[in-house]
Design a protein that fits this description.
- There is one protein chain.
- This protein is an alpha/beta fold.
- Helices cover 37% and strands 12% of the residues.
- It has 14 helices and 13 strands.
- The chain has a six-stranded mixed beta sheet with strand order 8-6-10-11-12-13. It has a three-stranded parallel beta sheet with strand order 3-4-5, with helices on both faces.
- The radius of gyration is 27 Å and the shape is globular.
C-alpha cells in the first residue's frame, strides 16, 4: 500500500514533466516560426506614427503602386507581389521574373482592392502604405486588411517628386539597403536641381503653353496644381488648365471649345487612342500644337514616365519634358540619360532598339544635333508613338499609312 502510493506519487510528476516538456517544445517551435515578430523594433513612420516592425524585414509588401515601384527600384529581390500589371510588352525593360509575380491589388490607388486572404497567402512581414494628403480614404480603411492579417503598416509619404529622395533613404534604412537608397535619392535631387538651374531665367511669357491630354478623346486633363501634372510645372511648362485639384483621381473633364481658347503650343498624350479618336474632328487642327506637329506620347515602359502611377520615373520624365519644351535651354543628351537611368533604377541595359522604342522622336543620328519636335514645315503634323510617325491629318494620310 505504501509502496503503491509512493509509486503513484513518483510517477505523476514524471508524467507531468514529460508532458510539460512536450508543450515547451511545441511552444518553442511555434515561436521560432514567428521569430521575426519577437525580434521587433519600434520606428516612427513618415506619417509620424509609432510602429513595431521586425528587426529584419524579408517580405515587404507595397500597398499601392507608387510604393511597389519604390520597392522594385530599391530592392527588386524583395518584391513579393504587384498591385497591377506593368505596361504591356515591357518584359525586356524588366528584370527576369518580375512580370510573373502575383497581382493582388492595392489598399490605395490603381488596381482592385487587396484582401486579407491574399495577404495571408503571401506571408508578408511588413506593409508599406502610401501617405498622400489627397487621399479620399481614411487611414483605418487602408489598414483594415493588414490589421486582419496581423501585418504592421508603415506609411511612406509620396506627394511630390521632392518626397522621393527622403522616401528612398527611409525605406533603405528599414530594409538594410542604405547605400542603394542614398544613390537613388541623390540622383533624383541632382536631376531636379539640373532642370531647375537650366530654366532659372525662364520668364512667364516665355513658358510654353502645354495641354495634358489623358483620355482617349483628349477631353480629360489635370489642374496645374495637381500632383498628377506636377512634371509639366517642374519642367517649366505652362499647364493651360489653371484650377484646384478636386479629387485624388483627377482626370478633370474639359470641352474642346475651351482647349481651342487655350490654344496650347504642345500636347502631351497619355492614351494611345487619342489620335485615332480625334481624327474626325477638324477643330483640333486649329490648335497651334497640331499645326506645328508638337504632339508627343508619354513613354510608358515598364512604368509611365509621368503619372499613373506617379513614381521615381518622373526624375527622368522632367528631363525629357524640359528638353522637349526648351531644347536650347536644357541641352542634356536624353538618350544617354535614359540609358543611365534605366541601368541605375531598373537594372537593365538598353539597346539602341529599346531606346528608339522609348524615344522615337530622338534617333541616334539626331540626338546630338539639337531636338527635333517634328517636321514643323509639313502640312501634316505627326504624333510619335511606338517608333512610328503617325500623320495627324487623317484626310491626307490615314492612321498607320506609310
Amino acid at each position: 500500500m505504501h509502496a503503491s502510493y509512493c509509486y503513484r506519487m513518483a510517477s505523476t510528476p514524471l508524467s507531468w514533466i514529460r508532458h510539460a516538456g512536450h508543450l515547451t517544445l511545441v511552444l518553442w517551435v511555434t515561436l521560432l516560426g514567428y521569430s521575426h515578430l519577437l525580434r521587433a523594433q519600434e520606428v516612427i513612420d513618415m506619417a509620424g506614427r509609432q510602429v513595431h516592425i521586425p528587426d529584419v524585414i524579408a517580405r515587404p509588401f507595397g500597398a499601392a503602386p507608387p510604393i511597389t515601384a519604390l520597392l522594385y527600384a530599391l530592392a527588386p529581390d524583395l518584391v513579393i507581389a504587384l498591385n497591377m500589371p506593368f505596361t504591356p510588352e515591357s518584359d525586356s525593360f524588366l528584370q527576369p521574373g518580375v512580370a510573373k509575380l502575383p497581382i493582388i491589388g492595392s489598399a490605395m490607388g490603381h488596381g482592385h482592392q487587396v484582401n486579407s486572404e491574399s495577404l495571408l497567402a503571401l506571408k508578408p512581414d511588413l506593409a508599406l502604405a502610401w501617405s498622400n494628403s489627397r487621399s479620399d480614404l481614411e487611414p483605418k480603411a487602408i489598414e483594415i486588411p493588414f490589421a486582419k492579417a496581423g501585418i504592421p503598416v508603415v506609411y511612406i509619404k509620396l506627394e511630390s517628386l521632392a518626397d522621393w529622395p527622403p522616401a528612398f533613404e527611409y525605406v533603405g534604412r528599414l530594409l538594410g539597403r542604405e547605400a542603394r537608397g542614398k544613390a537613388l535619392a541623390d540622383y533624383i535631387r541632382q536631376a531636379m536641381a539640373s532642370v531647375e538651374t537650366a530654366l532659372t531665367e525662364l520668364s512667364g511669357p516665355d513658358r510654353l503653353r502645354v495641354y495634358y491630354a489623358e483620355s482617349p478623346n483628349g477631353l480629360a486633363t489635370e489642374c496645374n496644381n495637381s500632383f498628377h501634372a506636377e512634371p509639366i510645372e517642374l519642367a517649366g511648362g505652362y499647364n493651360v488648365y489653371r484650377c484646384e485639384q478636386k479629387t485624388m483621381v483627377g482626370r478633370e473633364p474639359v470641352d474642346l471649345e475651351q482647349i481651342l481658347l487655350w490654344n496650347p503650343q504642345l500636347i502631351i498624350v497619355q492614351d494611345p487612342l487619342y489620335l485615332k479618336n480625334t481624327e474626325t474632328d477638324e477643330r483640333w487642327r486649329n490648335i497651334d500644337a497640331f499645326k506645328m506637329g508638337r504632339i508627343f506620347q508619354v513613354p510608358r515602359k515598364p512604368i509611365n514616365w509621368l503619372d499613373r502611377p506617379p513614381s521615381f520615373m518622373r526624375a527622368l520624365g522632367i528631363q525629357w519634358l524640359a528638353h522637349l519644351f526648351y531644347p536650347s535651354r536644357y541641352t542634356h543628351d536624353i538618350r544617354a540619360e535614359t540609358r543611365n537611368f534605366y541601368h541605375l533604377f531598373l537594372g537593365v541595359d538598353l539597346s539602341d532598339a529599346a531606346l528608339n522604342e522609348l524615344l522615337p522622336h530622338l534617333t541616334s543620328k539626331e540626338h546630338n544635333n539639337g531636338f527635333r519636335l517634328s517636321n514643323a514645315n509639313s502640312s501634316t503634323p505627326e504624333l510619335f508613338e511606338n517608333g512610328t510617325r503617325h500623320p495627324i491629318n487623317a484626310l491626307q494620310a490615314p492612321l498607320g499609312a506609310p
